[in-house]
Amino acid sequence: MAHIGTAELVSAVSNAGALGIIGCGFYKPDWVRKQIRLTRQKTDQTFGINILLNSPYVTEILEIILQEKVPIIATGVGNPEPYIPQLKQAGLKIIPVVASVTAARNMEMAGADAIVAEGMESGGTIGETALVALVPQVVDAVKIPVIAAGGIADGRGLAAAMALGAQGIQMGTRFVCSEESVAHSAYKQKILDADDRSTVITGRTTGISLRTLKNSLTEQFLALEQAGATREELNIFSSGRMHLGMIDGDVEQGSLLAGQIAGMITDIKPVKVIIEETVAEAEWVISHLNIISK
C-alpha cells in the first residue's frame, strides 16, 4: 500500500475496529514521522507501520518507529531477522509478510509475533503460491498466528481464510476503493472497471514479480522482458511509476498495483462500511455452512 497507506486511510481503518497500517514504501524518514503523527491526530486506536526492507532508508525509519513508539511493524521485500532483536527488546510486535512455508518457519524462529501469508493473487510484489495452497501449509508449519492476504475483498474471503486456519485477514486492493483512500480517482476507476483478467505479472526475469493492472506501461515492460532486456534496461519503468499512476492518475504510463480480486470491486464506500459488511457477510456465510453441514 505504498502511497495509499497514509494517515487518512490508516486512521479510518483503525477507527473502524481493524488495524490500519502505514505504508512507508521508499519514502524518506521525515515523511514517515509526519504520517505517524498525523495518524495519531486522527485516531486514538492502535495502528502499525509497514517497512520495505529494500528501502534505502530502513535504518533511519526503524529509529523513527522506535522514537515514536509505533507498536506494530509489518515487513516486506527482505529479511527482517537482523532487526528483530532490537525491535522485540523495545516491546514492538513484528509481523513479516511471507510467500512460502520456509520463510514463515524462519520468521517464527527469528522471533516474529505473527505471519502474513500472502498468496500470489495479491497486488504488488508476489510469490509463486496461491492463497488456498499457501495458508494451510503455513498454519501447519508454525505456532504463531497466521494472517491471510491476497485475493480477499469481502466476507466470503474472510470466511474462507478462517476455514483454511488463518486467524485474520489483510486486505489492500479493496481499501484503495474507499472514500478515505488518497488514490487518484482515475486509478480507483480502473479498479472498478477491472474484470478477472485485468491484472498481469511483470518482472519475473528481474527476480521481483509485480502484479498490477494492465496498461500501456505493462505492455512495454513485458515486450522488453520477452526480448531479453537486462534488469538495468527495465529499471526505466521503476522510478516514480507507482506515484505517477496511483496518485497522479496517469493510468497508462503509471504502475497500478492491484490484486486479482479487483474484478470483484464495483463501488467506492467508506472504510467503516467496507469492514462492517465484510464481517457481517463472513458471519452469515459461516452460519449457513453450519446449517448445510447438519
Describe the protein.
This protein has 294 residues and is α/β, with parallel strands linked by helices. It has two domains: 7-182 and 264-288, TIM Barrel, CATH 3.20.20.70; 195-262, no CATH class. It has helices at residues 7-15, 29-42, 58-68, 84-89, 101-110, 131-141, 155-163, 173-176, 185-192, 216-226, 231-234, 241-246, 271-293; strands at residues 20-23, 47-52, 72-76, 93-98, 115-118, 124-125, 146-149, 168-170, 199-202, 210-213. A seven-stranded parallel β-sheet has the order 1-2-3-4-5-7-8. A three-stranded antiparallel β-sheet has the order 6-10-9, covered by helices on one side. The chain is globular, with a radius of gyration of 18 Å. The termini are far apart. The model has no long low-confidence stretch (mean pLDDT 94).
Compact description:
It contains 13 helices and ten strands. A seven-stranded parallel sheet has the order 1-2-3-4-5-7-8. A three-stranded antiparallel sheet has the order 6-10-9, covered by helices on one side.
